[in-house]
Design a protein that fits this description.
By secondary structure, this protein is of the alpha+beta class. The chain has one domain (about 1-79). About 30% of the residues lie in helices and about 15% in strands. It has a two-stranded antiparallel ribbon with strand order 1-2. The two termini are about 20 Å apart.
Length: about 80
């Protein structure tokens, strides 16, 4: 995913992946006004194939608002 993002360099996408001590991953995505800039990538499609078989827990999606930002998101915005 990160190689594909580096190659296409979509300006509206912010993407951060964290791995917790228990092996779970957290994906933080800011898409701005171009949600297809991430989901339209071939690498994203490949990453999501068979995703259910690789998960140990159900997917949890939740909108969030930025409370604080220090050098993670440009200008304190998600997109």
């Amino acid at each position: 995913m990160f190689e594909a993002l580096d190659e296409t360099a979509p300006q509206s996408v912010r993407y951060l992946v964290l791995e917790l001590d228990d092996g779970e991953f957290i994906h933080v995505v800011g898409e701005g006004n171009e949600p297809s800039a991430l989901t339209g990538l071939a690498a994203f499609e490949a990453f999501t194939q068979n995703h259910a078989e690789r998960r140990s827990t159900p997917v949890k999606r939740s909108p969030a608002k930025i409370i604080g930002n220090y050098h993670v998101l440009e200008d304190g915005k998600a997109g």
